[in-house]
Design a protein that fits this description.
The chain is of the alpha+beta class and about 210 residues long. The protein has two domains: about 130 residues, Urocanase superfamily (Urocanase fold); about 45 residues, no CATH class. The protein contains six helices and five strands. A three-stranded mixed sheet has the order 4-3-5, with helices on one face. It has a two-stranded antiparallel ribbon with strand order 1-2. A hairpin with a 3-residue loop joins strand 1 and strand 2.
């Protein structure tokens, strides 16, 4: 009988050992793949789940431009920089079952002792106070390395491609059909779309 590995109460791996794992996982951004199976790299399944979702977002079969950390939409990134990605991965590897990692716009900013029932990761992306919430200011901060655009699911590590937007796109088309044509769908009508990517590609499927 296979048993689930038990996360150690204290991580005895050295910094050098953790750095070697980080290098193996994300050293080459063109070759990032999430681990499979029941062997844990992190100290528990909650941390492992977050780690695997992050790595899956950057898999070349998933991400638009993994070497630039862009997952989809031309701008949606999973981490602010390669250096920030390395630190995120390292912190996920050694995060305890009663700790929470805070990530601000693709950069890890703190690890707090919390509780077993608390979230293991909290992420806030692209937040600006209203007075400065405009594209010129955002781009200025982005150039300074102080923020990133995470789209909806890239910066939160939960991008699953076309399947994630297909239902919502179908419902949007159905709502448009009801509102404008009094019909349940757009059957028999021509839809012009430039959607060719992982998200926009859902439009011809949904139609």
């Amino acid at each position: 009988m296979t048993t689930t590995p038990v996360a150690p109460a204290i991580d005895t791996r050295s910094d050098a050992e953790l750095d070697a794992i980080v290098e193996h996982l994300v050293g080459d951004l063109a070759n990032v793949h999430a681990p499979h199976g029941t062997d844990l790299l992190a100290r528990g399944w909650e941390q492992e789940g977050a780690l695997r979702m992050l790595l899956n977002n950057l898999d070349p079969d998933v991400a638009e431009e993994p070497t630039k950390l862009v997952v989809y939409g031309g701008t949606g990134r999973a981490a602010r920089s390669h250096a920030a990605l390395r630190v995120i991965v390292k912190e996920l590897l050694r995060l305890g079952a009663d700790e929470t990692l805070l990530v601000q716009s693709g950069k890890p900013v703190a690890v707090f002792r919390t509780t077993l029932d608390s979230p293991r990761v909290l992420i806030a992306n692209s937040n600006l106070v209203p007075r400065f919430a405009n594209w010129p200011e955002f781009r200025r901060l982005e150039q300074l390395g102080l923020t990133m655009y995470g789209q909806m699911t890239a910066g939160s590590w939960i991008y699953i491609g076309t399947q994630g937007i297909l239902q919502g796109t179908f419902q949007t088309f159905a709502a448009a059909a009801r509102k404008h044509y009094g019909a349940p769908d757009l059957a028999g009508r021509t839809i012009l779309t430039a959607g060719l990517g992982g998200m926009g590609g859902a439009q011809p499927l949904a139609a």
